[in-house]
Amino acid sequence: MARKKVVELTERDVELLKMLAEHITIRTDNVGRLYQTEKYHTARLKKLKDAKYIKNNYGYVLLGVEGERYLKSIGIVPKSKPPSKSNYLERVKQRSDLYFDFLGSSWRFIDGRELKKQYGTIDRSSMFIGLLSGWTEYMVYFLTKYYDKKQIENMKHEISNLYRLGIYRAVIFYRDRKERERYRDETLGIKEQLALPYPAGVELLKKHGEKDIIRAAAEKVYGVLKEPAWKEADFEAEGKQIMVLILNDIEKKAKIRNYLDLTAFRYTERQEIEILCLDEQEEVFRSEFPECSIRTISTEEVLRL
């Protein structure tokens, strides 16, 4: 019979186990943030795994039997067991990732489970992952390969009804082009509907939590900004109505398309619209809005604002 491996837990080991009780699973590189090391945590995780305090799951760690036993000995009961179904486990991983992504930023990421406790009227089947709270609030969603057309329709219906919770902005993260294409653009009647790639979009949002990067980016490119003649535009500069789409706001895009379509059949003068976007967005927006001029700014410049 193999001898049980004994590990003397450090303060950081205990903190990791407590975090796993809260978040169920944590990505390995985020464990490094807990240990505040680049390499040490890897060796430490191996020892904890060998002693069955944790177990691995494709780049993530979860509580092992000894980890659960230790937590119970100090009066901590894990919130729940890891889901057995892949789609539910994926959701748990997303929630954990986002918590650590925004940890230490100007945003506070509030776990979706806590929101459902706070708002008694929220359906337990709601699809949001959590809420970003700072100078404003964004309900957070995450597209996955597991969502079919009906589930995406349900997500959009949920977003369109966020006003009932007093929330008027949403961010939808996606990992690849296929996921993004299945989420077709349409206005949902909220103030902002941001569709951002993960993880690159996280850095943009973190910067947006520090300052209004819409105005800051426009000032960087145009200098002096004026009040726009077209009320839906962000600013006026160089005689043009400026729409800043660096955060890929679907609601703004719908306003541009609606304005262009309406003025195409009227004799009133059409204001010239210029879109300010990221370098990597230029090709898409030129194709989507051939009637508009395009100016670009690099992601690196935005993050330095």
Keywords:
305 residues; alpha/beta; Arc Repressor Mutant, subunit A; 3 domains; 5-stranded mixed beta sheet; 4-stranded mixed beta sheet; 13 helices; 12 strands; elongated
Overview of this protein structure:
The chain is α/β, with parallel strands linked by helices and 305 residues long. It folds into three domains: 11-73, Arc Repressor Mutant, subunit A (Orthogonal Bundle); 86-210; 213-303, no CATH class. Helices cover 42% and strands 18% of the residues. It has helices at 11-23, 28-35, 40-50, 65-73, 86-101, 112-118, 149-160, 177-182, 200-210, 213-222, 250-263, 282-288, 299-303, and strands at residues 25-27, 54-57, 60-63, 108-111, 130-133, 137-142, 169-174, 192-197, 235-237, 240-244, 273-278, 293-297. Strands 4-5-6-7-8 form a five-stranded mixed β-sheet. Strands 9-10-11-12 form a four-stranded mixed β-sheet, with helices on both faces. Strands 1-3-2 form a three-stranded antiparallel β-sheet. A hairpin with a 2-residue loop joins strand 2 (54-57) and strand 3 (60-63). The longest helix is centred in the N-terminal third of the chain and has 16 residues, at 86-101. The model has no long low-confidence stretch (mean pLDDT 93).
